[in-house]
Write a structure and sequence with these properties.
- The protein is mainly alpha-helical and about 1000 residues long.
- It is built from 50 helices and 10 strands.
- Strand 5, helix 7 and strand 6 form a beta-alpha-beta unit.
- The protein is elongated.
């Protein structure tokens, strides 16, 4: 201990802040019940933010909470990556070692990027998901630690936060959803000028309903009087209170300084500026204490004692005496762990730092750097590289700064702090020309940007080049979201390469530009990819060549699938294998599998994708695993196998969370919304779409959500909402990158909305635009619903004024388009029949037989909404065609089933149409209870059997074979076999005999009916 404090300038009485404490206490109470909370606390420097959260922390501890504090560390003008989170996690590890270890189990190598004490970091692939993966794992770690106890995380001084810390905080506040956790972050409001990097983050967080913001104001005169009374331990003179209140304007820190100055009779209270007041307090210290204060001011937010001793070059006794005086004057404080010193308030540190002469500042930074080079153990290992780079840079020694900055950039990349890596690499490019040639000649490529080819044949002997720095910076900019900066870097690099005759590096930079242009909505990226392809054409196989081909194949699969895309994927796989580029090979094989599926070679394509899934999982290739769980379910959905797709998508959600694949998880949720809609789980589909947007927080996930919500609104009859969501989806997907998987579904929705609002000409215009673009190979899954929407619109509009003009041409074009679409699986065979039936209806020529074929197709599929629509159309056709009681009974049953499905789904337009048709035909859809048993329900319906399955079961119970059933019901033997399989599954029996016995036991069919049907 350093002994008694000689100058008392902190009031022992906590003054005011009742409202702010109420907000904090309310948030803590909610968090304690399992509702995680997030708060922002802002206020000007010295207004009392730290004192408020210290008071709150004491109260939270008394309530049984574990409190972890982390502050943003400033080194000169630089912030340490993730510093507040690392400090807070260390505090949690000290308080809850077993709990934190259990929460981090299995992910220690990733989480070690924030908390090195967990072990060695993984050296896995760096990609766009790397930072997001770390963020997701960090949030889940905090949620698990806070699962059984209240945990309060206090993050101070966000105005000094590095970009990676800001990104992590934004992600935490957006995605926090469980645990007894309260996160409070403070910032200095008066520092947040128009261009301050924290400003956009605050604006973003303000839009989140889950985040509350507290603005801490200055003290009133009464509160100032109470504060002064606490400081001087007596009632102050009212005139003195008036003077201090006027001078301080209610700022708590300045009240303390002025009160102490006045109480001690110091004339500093009469100086012209409060900054001078702070300096006078320092200048009243002994010279050795002033020297130590200046050293601490330049060392950062906190300076370790051993480091301070090495830089100060004082004897230990002299250093301790100097520190004693500074601490006694309340200028410096010992850190909580007793290992170092910091200024009591950052305002004092800034005043002392600003008072340093330029040469003095450079000299101090040089001394810090030399000491750290001589003994790296003086600072924590995870801070050493960044601190050394900062000190050498501010010492203005390019020869020393350049290698140190490059080492710090590698460390930042290792921690997924890509924003800091980019800043450091830009600093290295700034230093490059001023560093001596001899120093540059000794530098070697210490890290590589993806498949960028290192300069020279041997990286161990070939010096690092400026172009290598630009390559690393371009990737860091892409990974960190600083895409505009990355675009400028790639443009400069390509300009430098114009005269070098280096096609591989040029191709690599064009790939980067392609990705960046697409991400920035500045184009679809093809022009850049095509340029890269031209550059590598004819060159020997290389990783860059394989990467170009893989990117071309993937782009073509989304935009222009066909033989050329398939060839590019096959060559990418071949080249990747030849050069041992395993990740590129897996990605290319995944694309190849998808292209095989879309080309009609379904089983071979799915087998390839499943094999990639297996190998990627075994290799721990998380990014490939994430992409598999996006693409494979999408292919299955395109084959009508929605239930399989949902199973893999739910698995994908869990895997994405496990590995922190945020980008992948957003896509998985979007695809899940589509498959759940097909299966009739509409409420879950809406939730999946919302999850896609909430997690992805970018344009495409927002587009997924808007598309799902538009489909739901249209099917449920809310045309205004469907129109709003359609416009939102188109806005999110944009017009710069027309991808069929987005364009065609939105066009189908637009046709549906226009038709629903009676705008047939607008619906036709949408169709014209889609047919003008055409349906590339493999896009039939989007083409059939679009043609159906248009054919239905034409059929529904038959007889309306002005609808006949041009209809014949539209119908002919629809028939022509339908001939070009694939019908290689049952779901699209069903759609082909449905489109054909709607086209006949549009011409007034539809017949029950046509609709019966459509019904046969959809009764084999798990698409309840589509099935209900088809049942309605068949009933309508039967009634229009006329007939006897048998046809009316059949129509009644069809309409009853259609309305039950519509009511369950909330499909109001369909339900209304069914009711109207039944009313016009004078059909009663509600079942009349049997007199002998009013409460009895239909056992077949209770078992989930459709009307056709009921007919099949009746014949199974009578002992018929599948062929005999097919002849009886005018269906194919294969269809009869499928119906029998479905019946066995629904009855949970193993064979036809058990099914027949169960039917007889439940008296599903009266004996005379069965006898009558089996005779003769």
């Amino acid at each position: 201990m350093l002994g008694a404090v000689e100058t008392r300038s902190v009031s022992p009485v906590f003054v005011g802040r009742a409202d702010e404490l109420d907000v904090l206490n309310d948030a803590f109470a909610r968090a304690a019940t399992g509702e995680p909370q997030a708060l922002l606390l802002g206020g000007e420097a010295g207004v009392g933010k730290t004192r408020l959260i210290e008071e709150f922390a004491v109260r939270a501890c008394c309530e049984g909470a574990v409190v972890a504090v982390g502050g943003c560390v400033e080194i000169g003008a630089d912030g340490l990556p993730f510093a507040p989170f690392s400090t807070a996690l260390r505090a949690l590890r000290r308080r809850l070692p077993d709990e934190l270890a259990a929460a981090a189990a299995g992910q220690e190598d990733e989480l070690a990027r924030l908390l090195p004490e967990l072990g060695e970091t993984s050296r896995g692939r760096h990609d766009e998901d790397g930072m997001a993966r770390l963020f997701e794992l960090t949030v889940r770690l905090l949620e698990r630690v806070a699962a059984d106890r209240p945990v309060v995380v206090l993050l101070e001084d966000l105005h000094w936060a590095d970009a990676s810390t800001r990104h992590l905080l934004a992600y935490l506040f957006r995605t926090l959803r469980s645990g007894r956790l309260l996160v409070v972050a403070t910032y200095r409001a008066d520092d947040i000028h128009r261009r301050h990097p924290l400003r956009p983050l605050l604006a973003e967080l303000d839009r989140l309903r889950t985040v509350r913001r507290i603005e801490l104001g200055r003290f009133s005169r009464t509160e100032v009087g109470c504060q002064i009374a606490g400081i001087i331990a007596s009632e102050p003179d009212p005139a003195q209170v008036d003077e201090i209140f006027a001078r301080s304007d209610g700022n708590a820190f300045f009240v303390e300084e002025l009160a102490v100055a006045a109480h001690e009779g110091c004339c500093a209270g009469l100086t012209d500026s409060l900054r001078d007041l702070l300096l006078v307090r320092v200048e009243s210290l002994p010279e050795s204490s002033q020297q130590v204060a200046r050293i601490v001011a330049e060392g950062g937010s906190t300076v370790e004692y051993r480091l301070l001793a090495a830089v100060a070059r004082l004897s230990e006794d002299d250093l301790i005496e100097a520190l004693r005086a500074a601490v006694g004057a309340n200028i410096l404080l010992a850190t909580a762990d007793g290992g170092g010193y910091r200024f009591r308030h950052s305002l004092v540190r800034e005043a002392v730092g600003d008072d340093l002469l330029p040469g003095e500042r450079s000299r101090l930074n040089r001394r810090y750097a030399e000491v750290l080079e001589a003994d790296p153990a003086l600072v924590p290992a995870d801070e050493r590289a960044a601190r050394l780079a900062s000190h050498w840079y501010h010492a203005h020694d390019a020869a020393k700064a350049l290698p140190a900055v490059l080492e710090a950039s590698v460390e930042a990349r290792r921690r997924h702090a890509y924003s800091e890596q980019l800043r450091l690499l830009e600093r290295a490019m700034e230093l490059w020309d001023t560093a001596p040639e001899a120093v540059r000649a000794e530098l070697r490529p210490v890290d590589y940007a993806e498949v960028y080819p290192p300069c020279g044949c041997d990286p161990q002997t070939t010096p690092l080049r400026y172009l290598d720095l630009m390559a690393e910076a371009a990737v860091a900019g892409r990974f960190s979201g600083e895409r505009e900066r990355a675009l400028k870097i790639t443009k400069r690099a390509l300009h430098l390469l114009e005269d070098e005759g280096d096609p591989l590096r040029a191709a690599w930079f064009w790939i980067q530009r392609s990705r960046l242009m697409e991400a920035r909505s500045r184009g679809d990226g093809w022009k850049e990819l095509s340029t890269a392809q031209d550059l590598v054409r004819g060159l020997p196989p290389s990783a860059v060549h394989a990467d170009v081909l893989a990117n071309v194949a993937n782009w073509s699969m989304q935009h222009r699938p066909g033989p050329e895309a398939l060839l590019a994927a096959e060559r990418a796989v071949e080249y990747a294998r030849m050069v041992g580029a395993r990740d590129i090979e897996l990605h290319a094989r995944l694309t190849l599998g998808g292209l095989l599926v879309e080309s009609g070679d379904i089983e071979a394509g799915l087998a390839e994708v499943h094999e990639v899934k297996k190998q990627a999982s075994e290799a721990g290739a998380a990014y490939v695993v994430g992409r598999v769980h996006i693409n494979l379910p999408s292919h299955l959905e395109g084959l009508g196998r929605s239930r399989e797709a949902v199973r893999i998508l739910r698995e994908g959600v869990e895997l994405a969370r496990k590995f922190g694949l945020v980008y992948s998880e957003a896509w998985v949720w979007g695809n899940l919304g589509e498959s759940l809609f097909s299966l009739g789980h509409w409420d879950e589909a809406g939730e999946a779409g919302a999850n896609s947007e909430r997690i992805g927080q970018s344009e495409k996930p927002r587009g997924f959500n808007a598309t799902v919500q538009a489909r739901l609104a249209l099917a449920r009859g809310d045309l205004a909402e469907a129109g709003r969501q359609l416009a939102a989806a188109r806005g999110h997907f944009g017009t710069h990158d027309v991808v069929p998987q987005h364009l065609l579904p939105l066009t189908a929705l637009a046709i549906g909305v226009a038709a629903g609002e009676g705008r047939l000409l607008d619906a036709r215009a949408e169709l014209d635009e889609a047919l003008g673009i055409g349906f590339p190979p493999g896009t039939h899954r989007y083409g059939w619903p679009l043609l159906l929407a248009s054919a239905t619109a034409e059929a529904d509009a038959r007889g309306l004024p002005g609808a006949d003009e041009g209809r014949a041409d539209v119908l002919e074009r629809l028939r022509g388009a339908a001939k070009g679409l694939t019908t290689n699986v049952p779901v699209w065979q069903g759609y082909e029949r449905w489109v054909r039936a709607e086209l006949l209806r549009a011409e007034g020529r539809d017949a029950p037989d046509e609709w019966a074929e459509v019904l046969d197709a959809f009764e084999l599929l798990e698409r309840p909404y589509d099935l209900a629509c088809v049942r309605y159309r068949l009933a309508e056709s039967l009634l229009v065609a006329g007939g006897g009681e048998e046809e009316r009974d059949r129509s009644t049953e069809l309409l009853r089933l259609a309305r039950a499905a519509a009511d369950h789904l909330g499909a109001r337009p369909l339900a209304d149409a069914v009711s109207l048709l039944a009313q016009r035909a004078r059909l009663t859809l509600s079942r009349t209870p049997e007199r002998t048993s009013p409460a009895a329900a239909d056992p077949a319906e209770a078992l989930g059997l459709t009307s056709r399955e009921r007919d099949v079961l009746r014949l199974v119970a009578a002992g018929h074979t599948n062929r005999r059933i097919a002849e009886e019901l005018f269906i194919s033997p294969k269809t009869a076999s499928v119906h029998v399989s479905n019946i066995l599954a629904k009855l949970n029996v193993s064979g036809r005999g058990e099914a027949a016995a169960l039917a007889h036991r439940l008296r599903l069919f009266p004996p005379e009916t069965a006898d009558a049907r089996t005779t003769g």
